[in-house]
């Protein structure tokens, strides 16, 4: 029975987290305090904490201990091509968009590669953070080829770029290639986001095409690890 005690402790804490008795962002008691409370060894407590971490209930952060993760994560579709404004309708709170950098730039070597751009091209650069529930948790870095998007304003970027592109510019946005990776946080991430001690970030890279197969947009959407889950629906062919 003692060998399975860590499972009992794990179950006890998952129920507390799921019920909301322990809120997201709160720290669990120390290993010593838990060992004393459950009349067991620190090794048993570590096994229970490791299981909580592996299953997405807590995040161990140096200097802060074991922090409870929000198990009610916001869902982002993987396969769909939708704007943040459209996705945000499913949130229980109103997101706020802040534009940090906006303007026309000449493509550097990285942008030339991502957008198949030449030195003669100009690119709209848009850096925006998304605040949800009082926390800056998404950093969107958008790049549009000016030859497809001749005009753009900061005010449009604060609202919905896709709404403007489709309704005003009459662009037919067709499909996107996506790549999802986990990267080390950059100084830019730390400057614009509330990272709460996280050292890594989920990055969704989008290469977006018009209906004539022209690549016109490259985006990096950088999400804080504990706030989102990325979902899809798949059907097996017959």
Automatic annotation (TrEMBL):
InterPro entries for the chain: Bact_HTH_transcr_reg, Chorismate_lyase_/UTRA_dom_sf, TreR, Tscrpt_reg_HTH_GntR, UTRA, WH-like_DNA-bd_sf, WH_DNA-bd_sf
Pfam families cross-referenced by the UniProt entry: GntR (PF00392), UTRA (PF07702)
Keyword field contains Nuclease: no
Transmembrane regions: none
Source domain of life: Bacteria
HTH gntR-type domain: residues covered: 3-71
Keywords, comma-separated and alphabetical: DNA-binding, Transcription, Transcription regulation
SMART domains for this protein: HTH_GNTR (SM00345), UTRA (SM00866)
CDD domains on file: WHTH_GntR (cd07377)
UniProt KW Transcription keyword: yes
Full protein name: Trehalose operon repressor
Species for this entry: Metabacillus rhizolycopersici
